[in-house]
Amino acid sequence: xxxxxxxxxxxxxxxxxxxxxxxxxxxxxxxxxxxxxxxxx
Length: 41
Hints:
two-stranded antiparallel sheet; 0% helix
């Protein structure tokens, strides 16, 4: 689990949980996340 405000990390996640005002706002599943080795900083 990674908690971040860095939107670039969304690409490597298989699941994104968005929190708004202390509550889960949305859960998004990615069937084909990018390989972490391909992520550019």
